[in-house]
Amino acid sequence: MQLRGLKTGIVGLxxxxxxxxSWAHHSFAAAYDMKDAITITGKIVDVRLTNPHSHFFIDxxxxxxxxxxxxxxxxxxxxxxxxxxxxxxxxxGDTVTIKGFRARxxxxxxxxxxxxxxxxxxxxxxxxxQSAGAK
Length: 135
Description:
Layout: H1 2-24, H2 28-31, E1 32-48, E2 55-61, E3 67-73, H3 77-82, E4 95-103, E5 109-116, E6 121-124, E7 129-130
Parallel strand pairs: 3-5
Antiparallel strand pairs: 1-2, 1-4, 2-3, 4-5, 5-6, 6-7
């Protein structure tokens, strides 16, 4: 009886392991509308450099004066660090501009392609660089 339970457990574990890759990653194009580019300026609430993707959370004041919470999915933590971003660059409350694409479900979520700090430094898919308007 114990051997049967062990076999069942092993088969269940194998099934879970084989299905994990389908949970592990998704296509950005499936979740985000690559034809709906957006630029959002707001204050950093939180930054999470966690696998498989980093997340940037900002508060934006809309045209009615109300605060709207936004969440942006970015590259992997390792990719962000290789492109020059580090947790010391921006702090909670710093104003940033994020360029990217809106979520297909029309929520206040997006995919980050560029994060621009107050001094004009751009972080994102292609590493740090000065924007054209920065001094």
